[in-house]
Specification:
This protein is of the alpha/beta class. Helix content is 18%, strand content 32%. Strand 4, helix 5 and strand 5 form a beta-alpha-beta unit. The mean pLDDT is 93.
Length: 548
């Protein structure tokens, strides 16, 4: 086993507890959902705002139903959008005139945040709050900066007052969402009123955005970043570094339907299939991240029956697959074995590190003993809080985990076997003659330059010296095509051009490995795009020796 220095980054107890929640429910409810019916927002017009507010009767508002959708999913927390960019405040704020005091519901005395907080406590769900920094009503843009500098001081005062109200009136808040970095100073408020809350973005971030809204993290997903990236307030999965000095785990926000808000034309906002949602779970929780899945209630306040049913269907399927392992154990060291108690058919392995000691494993392989013979079934780089690997079903009597690289002694909290069933389509090998050794996609692009850099650790997948073939394969149904600008091989961090050659097309390559026991990484850089690309696929590998 190749050893690295023990990692610097460790989670706080609050970060570790947050990662263990695994699933959260997002609620994007806009009582002004009718503004599409009366034209685009003209929120500087008082008469226009009055017309919107008059429509907010909240005739079917049911926060208990919202909380029930969270428990149906198996979510342990709920993040409510208390104020989005439109500027409407869904609580009894003392600031401004675009809020619950100005709508017909309960004669202006209703408070959605208060009712939801009570429903969450009743259901055993923890409450989080989303408070957008931008606000159309006061003409504040990104980071809470007003377009008219003369109005900045007043908006700063109002925004700070909003945050204080939300953190002091509704009980313990588990997560605060800022949706971008902040120019408004709020550190004193967070420290005084919500010192244990997780903070999404801003210079006070304790968790990190994955970088897209598709519900999956990169593989490998590293929990640490460098402090300067954490302080930017907008670090994403591409800033992850196993040697980083700051623990900043990933949250993957995603939508149950195509869009975040409610559409009266449901055909224009289709519901995602169970298979698509299950792929999000594998790609987020199954890679150590937390999945925050959105419900968009009707502007009157209720969640549609079919949306409730789909969320429960997903929760039931997750529980069916992973609630009861066939066998489970733990251990430390370069090799950990698990006796399955006799021959059992398995198709999934779940690994979890003791993250209180940091994310240590850098490369691993898992083998199953079948008929007395050991056979490799899965491999990878990062484990961290959780890693779920799937493979074709096979009978096995035991599992053997082997750490190929680690920062200090590997400590496994869980090594478990499952017979969960066929994985979602997005996770199945695109070609049965190959094995998938990594994933690439639009979620890993830098949208500022529309270019991505990928690093694939090939070491766990190269047990023997010899010749191999590599191919970048794209999932069908994505809009763009991958354009590679440069692909190269590094062995122990040193480029080795002679080991890699181009294949018959731009996405295929031949690899020659003269010896094993060294760190082998494939590096790839995409060409620049004129727009954020929409694509996703796998890096595939197979032996290419004539006599293999």
């Amino acid at each position: 086993m190749k050893l690295h220095a023990v990692p610097q980054a460790r989670p706080t107890p609050q970060q570790a507890a947050w990662q263990q929640m695994e699933l959260g429910l997002f609620i994007h409810w806009f009582p002004m959902g009718w503004y599409h019916d009366i034209g685009q927002p003209r929120l500087s017009d008082a008469a226009y705002r009055a017309e919107l507010l008059a429509r907010c009767t909240c005739a079917t508002l049911d926060t208990r139903q919202w909380a029930r959708s969270a428990t149906d999913l198996g979510a342990k927390y709920l993040v409510f959008v208390a104020k989005h960019a439109l500027g409407f405040c869904a609580w009894q704020t003392d600031e401004g005139d675009f809020n619950m005091k100005r709508i017909p519901w309960k004669n202006g005395r209703g408070d959605v945040v208060a009712e939801l907080a009570a429903s969450c406590r009743e259901a055993g769900i923890r409450l989080g709050i989303y408070l957008a920094a931008d606000t159309m009503v006061m003409d504040a843009g990104a980071r809470g900066l007003t377009r008219d500098p003369a109005r900045q001081a007043e908006y700063t005062r109002v925004y700070r007052a909003w945050l204080k109200e939300l953190l002091t009136r509704y009980g313990d808040i588990v997560e605060v969402w800022f949706d971008g970095s902040l120019a408004i100073e709020v550190g004193d408020i967070l420290q005084h009123y919500a010192p244990r809350a997780m903070v999404f973005q801003s210079p006070y971030a304790t968790i990190r955005w994955v970088g897209q809204e598709e519900g999956y993290a990169a593989d490998p997903a590293w929990h640490a970043v460098w402090r300067q990236d954490a302080l930017s307030g907008v670090a994403t999965q591409r800033h992850g570094d196993p040697d980083g000095d700051t623990w900043l785990p990933l949250e993957c926000d995603a939508r149950l339907r195509r869009d975040w808000g409610f559409h009266h034309d449901l055909a224009d906002n289709p519901l995602r299939s169970l298979d698509e949602l299950l792929a999000m779970y594998y790609g987020s929780v199954g890679r150590g991240a937390v999945l925050l899945l959105n419900q968009a209630p009707h502007p009157q306040g209720h969640i549609l029956p079919e949306d409730m049913a789909r969320m429960k269907e997903l929760g039931d399927e997750i529980r069916r697959r992973f609630a009861r392992p066939l066998a489970s154990g733990s251990g430390s060291g370069a090799v950990v074995e698990l006796d399955l108690g006799g021959p059992k058919e398995i198709d999934h392995v779940m690994l979890q590190e003791d993250i209180s000691q940091g994310q240590r494993v850098r490369a691993y392989r898992v083998a199953a003993r079948s008929g007395g013979q050991w056979r490799a079934v899965c491999a990878g780089s990062a484990i961290g809080y959780k890693k779920i690997d799937c493979f074709e079903p096979l009978p096995a009597e035991a599992l053997r985990f082997t750490a190929l690289e680690s920062a200090g002694t590997p400590i496994l909290r869980t090594l478990a076997a499952f017979r969960a069933g066929r994985p979602p389509a997005a996770l199945r090998p695109l070609d049965s003659a190959w094995i998938a050794v990594g994933e690439w996609g639009s979620g890993q692009f830098d949208h500022g330059s529309c270019q991505a850099d990928w690093t694939f650790n090939l070491s766990p997948y190269l047990p023997e010296a010899g010749q191999y073939a590599l191919r970048f394969a794209q999932h069908p149904g994505y809009h763009d095509a991958l354009r590679l600008n440069r692909v190269w091989l590094e062995v122990d961090g040193v480029p080795q051009d002679s080991y890699l050659s181009s294949g018959p097309d731009a996405l295929g390559f031949a690899l020659y490995l003269p010896a094993v026991g060294r760190q082998v990484a494939l590096r790839a850089q995409s060409s620049r795009y004129d727009h954020p690309p929409h694509l996703r696929g796998q890096l595939l590998l197979r032996r290419a020796d004539p006599n293999a």
